[in-house]
Amino acid sequence: MLFDLGLKNEFRDYYDVVTIGGGPAALGAAVYATRAGLSVLVVEKVLEGGQLNLTTHIDNYLGFPTIEGQELAKRMKEHAHSLGTKFLNAQVMRLLIEGKERKIEIDDGTIIRAGVVMIATGADPKKLGVPGERELTAKGISYCATCDGYFFKDKDVAVVGGGDTAINDAIYLSKIAKSVTVIHRREKLRAVKILQDKAFSNQKIKFQFNKVVERFLGTKKLEEVILKDTITGELSNMKVEGVFIAIGLTPNSDFVKDIVKTDEFGYIITDEFMQTNIPRVYAIGDVRKKNIRQIITAVSDGAIAAMHAAENYFV
Question: Which residues belong to the active site?
Answer without folding.
Answer: 144, 147-148
